[in-house]
Design brief:
The protein is mainly beta and 931 residues long. The N terminus is likely disordered.
């Protein structure tokens, strides 16, 4: 049985070669009458057939050499597969010879009948010496992925790409219990790591790391258009400190057709941020519909999650509309320990009976809704199409900050006699709308004229808090303020094929972009930042002690920090791609950008792919890139109460710390300079192997050098000893005429790094006969980052201080897994399916900023762990599927921190650098409806 279908394919192909035209039989195929939205530009027929295969989800067997002789006109609009095919082969000696299920064969005609020719299966554009007889893929409706990221061409498959690309399909998204786009990518792509640590305003947004680099060094696109960044700036996080990347969790997962992850520098093609690579999210455009209900919780309590998703597409006369809605609720988890510190003043009898479980670290509580729409309509003829797509979101997240003891100077016992735990609420409003016109212009030029506007507003509110400097009159609820970020991007992209007499035409792509960015900080209410000057009266505990100004946890934005900032940039690019011979393809790109705030930058990319033996290819790229400093990094100013290692201390204490803009007087006194763009040089070389049918292996090595990397400094603290001696930072501030007792950090270009690594991805599709079908994927990433330059401003160097301290360096060199391996098996047998995944995370380390009292750096390492995910599914009937599963099936936790780093408050129990969090296993049930 295992060989019957391949033998049938081979037999049919052979009959088509020898049978006279009158005997060529076309069986009825419902799939050929299905309508799809086709977008296939003018190009070679073989390339057009590849696009037809991808966009119709059908397999095509065709004579490659014969098809390569012909050019086809554009095929665009809502057409049946048979109508689109007829337009393509009209006027050529080709005909539809056979159709069955979701596979059809095209045969070539000669004077004596149908001429023998090589066929290619699974829509892979490579000539074959004989009719294809390969075993069918376990997913017959999922032909080889055709990608659009990293190339201006529309006919490239993953295996043919000049750079490494991962494609996360709709099926991959549906067979994972992960609840968000970011978590899905972190689970399925080995070179991506995720971080969910952070406190203060940083806890609500989660980031990803690609190839060991930061989230803001990855460009995110939606349908090929730049996605806007979040207005939030991560200040109190771990590896994501100082970032404000796009928030992937605000894109509904059920709106996604597939995701393409380009693991290569692409600034020359797409502009700023594409140093590590590109994530391109392609939205659904078909007429399908689905609904999903998910419910689950963490095994050790908390994390109760409910999610409802629904989407539906409809066809119009010459167009489509697809709408998606995603609503969700995530409960908090609490994974802290007991607070063993002294809570009350000496002699208070409540000390003996106090509740010690007062700190509540863990995942936040989140409620939100995401929506999206994708609309397209042909105008007049099928040569021009108008399109609009967009997303919109509202989200409310809240988390508890660190408990303030009853006896602390940042407590007022008259308000909170038993202490309190500030409760921070983060309210997100987000949308992005893109629209434009695309089609065929004069002289065979394909154009795409578009504009896109993105908006993110974040409001901060703190409850169960106080401003200790206001004394007993302090309110308990504060409006902290808001931040708003916008991006308005307009593009004109032109593409044309020019025949030079080579195996394929030269593709020329040119384009221009104009972008305006704005960033706004809105002040909080007066009690959230004012210094009320309260002193406890004599005779009471803490009498005369200076109280901290501003709301606890996160201090409100004062009017001095508020403002609106903006900039614009203009860019042009040129992209050339040429297949020189059957075995050699080259491409080159160049881009010029001019920013209104820091000047110009020029970048290039050169790539080549050589396939001397069919099934064995070598590819390589050299490119330069850049990342412009965000407006948040240039202008953000705030104050927070965070854990600080004060001079001479061995453990951290809660203290006010300021985030300083580079033009702040304190930052300038400490050596800050205006920010410049990061610049990178990427080298990559890879091997693509398809040694046997249904097996594809890629191995890619890379080196990424980043100069002038934008990093947050360590916390620089000024203090005065009891004998009146100023510490080094206080000495600097005092000499500048500033208050010597304050703490802060700021951004700089004071470092350069080098990252080296290796990606391996192997996929095998197996037909198991009576035992069903299976897809096995084995993938892994190894990477290492080191600092090649660390500058210290002269004013700090003279005091023996560093700018990027040991802990900050450790975030980038040891804060993400050095290696990550994934083994995934997806198996189906009739109505039954199973997806099992084992992920091994290499070690990560929380690096100490300073030596403890024993003279030792107490670094804490999360040991390598293997986590298992499992989902079992049953197709109850047509259109209804039931599933149950587990993420982290065996409830694995990271290592607990050492006693020195835990402290005695119970807030820091597990290592927050864990790449899989510290909430344990999540177990769920799911119902999928399709219509």
């Amino acid at each position: 049985m295992r060989l019957m279908l391949p033998m049938l394919y081979a037999s049919v192909a052979c009959l088509a070669l020898v049978a006279p035209p009158a005997l060529a039989v076309v069986e009825p195929s419902k799939a050929l009458s299905e309508k799809h939205h086709f977008d296939i530009p003018a190009q070679g027929l073989n390339a057009a057939l590849l696009s037809l295969s991808r966009q119709s989800s059908m397999r095509i067997l065709f004579p490659y050499e014969e098809a390569s002789r012909y050019e086809v006109r554009p095929v665009r609009g809502w057409l049946s597969t048979s109508e689109a095919l007829s337009r393509m082969i009209e006027g050529t000696p080709l005909q539809l010879a056979y159709a069955r299920d979701r596979t059809f064969t095209i045969a070539a005609r000669s004077k004596a009948g149908l001429r023998p020719a090589g066929f290619t299966s699974d829509a892979v554009a490579a000539p074959a010496p004989a009719p294809a007889a390969a075993e069918p893929s376990p997913q017959e409706d999922a032909p080889t992925d055709v990608i659009v990221t990293g190339t201006r061409q529309t006919n490239r498959t993953v295996a043919q790409s000049l750079a490494p690309i991962d494609v996360v399909s709709k099926a991959d998204l549906q067979t994972s219990g992960k609840q968000s786009v970011r978590d899905l990518l972190g689970t399925l792509v080995p070179s991506i790591s995720v971080s969910s640590s952070g406190s203060g305003a940083s806890f609500a947004v989660k980031t990803l790391s690609l190839r060991g680099l930061s989230g803001d060094q990855v460009l995110v696109l939606v349908n090929g258009k730049r996605r806007h960044n979040t207005a939030t700036l991560f200040i109190n996080g771990t590896t994501q400190n100082g970032q404000s990347p796009p928030d992937l969790d605000l894109i509904p997962a059920n709106a996604i057709d597939h995701i393409e992850v380009l693991r290569d520098g692409a600034s020359a093609q797409y502009g700023s941020d594409a140093i590590a690579g590109v994530v391109n999210i392609i939205l659904k455009k078909d007429a399908s519909g689905s609904a999903t209900v998910i419910g689950g919780a963490n095994g050790d309590g908390g994390g109760e999650t409910g999610r409802f998703q629904i989407d539906k597409g409809i066809t119009t006369q010459g167009g489509h509309i697809h709408v998606s809605v995603d609503g969700y609720m995530q409960g908090r988890t609490v994974r802290g320990g007991p607070n063993l510190s002294q809570l009350y003043f000496a002699g208070d009898p409540r000390e003996a009976t106090a509740d010690r479980r007062v700190n509540k670290p863990g995942q936040p509580q989140v409620v939100g809704v995401n929506g999206s729409i994708d609309v397209a309509q042909t105008l007049g003829t099928n040569d021009i199409e108008a399109y609009v797509f967009g997303t919109g979101s509202k989200r409310e997240a809240d988390a508890f900050l660190t408990f303030r003891n009853p006896n602390a100077t940042n407590n007022i016992p008259q308000i909170y006699p038993n202490g309190y735990i500030p409760h921070l609420h983060v309210h997100d409003e987000d949308y992005q709308v893109s629209g434009g016109l695309r089609g065929e212009g004069p002289l065979g030029v394909h154009f795409d004229l578009s504009t896109s506007y993105g908006y993110n507003k974040v409001r901060y509110v703190e409850t169960t808090a106080l401003n200790a400097s206001l004394g007993p009159a302090s309110p308990s609820t504060f409006y902290i303020g808001k931040v708003i970020g916008t991006e308005w991007t307009s593009n004109l992209d032109l593409t044309k094929h020019v025949e030079l007499g080579l195996v394929e035409p030269l593709q020329i792509a040119v384009g221009a972009e104009y972008r305006e960015d704005t960033y706004e900080i809105g002040a909080g209410d007066v009690p959230s930042y004012v210094d009320g000057g309260y002193r406890t009266p004599a005779g009471q505990p803490n009498a005369g002690v200076i109280r901290q100004a501003g709301s606890q946890g996160v201090t409100g934005f004062p009017p001095s920090a508020a403002g609106t900032f903006g900039r614009n940039n203009k860019s042009i690019y040129l992209d050339l791609s040429q297949k020189v011979t059957r075995w050699l393809e080259v491409s080159a790109s160049g881009r010029h950008e001019a920013y209104s705030d820091f000047g110009t930058t020029n970048n290039y990319k050169v790539s080549a792919r050589i396939e001397p033996i069919r099934g064995i290819a070598v590819r390589g790229t050299i490119s330069t890139g850049f990342r412009a400093p965000t407006l948040q990094q240039e202008h953000y100013a705030s104050s927070s109460t965070i854990g600080v290692l004060l001079p001479g201390a061995t453990t951290t204490v809660l203290a006010p710390v300021r985030a300083l803009p580079v033009d702040d007087t304190v930052a300038r006194a400490l050596g800050s300079q205006p920010l410049r763009p990061e610049k990178s040089t990427n080298y990559s070389a890879g091997l693509v192997l398809t040694p046997i049918n249904n097996l594809n292996v890629t191995v890619d090595a890379y080196q990424i050098e980043i100069d002038n990397r934008i990093l947050l400094s360590g916390t620089l603290t000024g203090a005065i000893a009891a004998n009146g001696t100023l510490n080094p930072v206080a000495t600097i501030l005092n000499a500048a005429g500033l208050n010597p007792v304050q703490s802060g950090f700021f951004f700089s270009n004071a470092a350069s790094t080098r990252t080296r690594g290796l990606d391996v991805v192997a996929t095998y599709r197996a037909g198991l006969g009576d035992f069903g079908k299976a897809v096995l994927t084995v993938s892994g990433n190894i990477n290492k980052t080191k600092f090649t330059r660390l500058d210290v401003p002269a004013v700090l160097a003279t005091q023996g201080l560093s700018l990027i301290d040991r802990a900050r360096q450790g975030d980038f060199t040891r804060g993400t897994p050095r290696n990550k391996e994934i083994v995934n098996l997806y198996w189906t047998l009739g109505a039954v399916s199973a997806n099992v995944r084992a992920t091994r995370y290499g070690e990560v380390t929380q690096v100490a900023a300073a030596r403890a009292a024993d003279g030792i750096y107490h670094d804490d390492t999360v040991a390598p762990k293997v986590l298992f995910d499992l989902e079992l599914g049953y197709q109850l009937t047509t259109g209804i599927k039931l599933s149950a599963g587990a993420n982290n099936l065996f409830n694995i936790y990271p290592n607990k921190l050492s006693a020195v780093n835990q402290g005695n408050t119970g807030f820091a129990l597990y290592n927050s650098y864990s790449p899989y969090g510290f909430s344990g296993g999540f177990y769920y049930g799911k119902i999928n409806l399709s219509f």
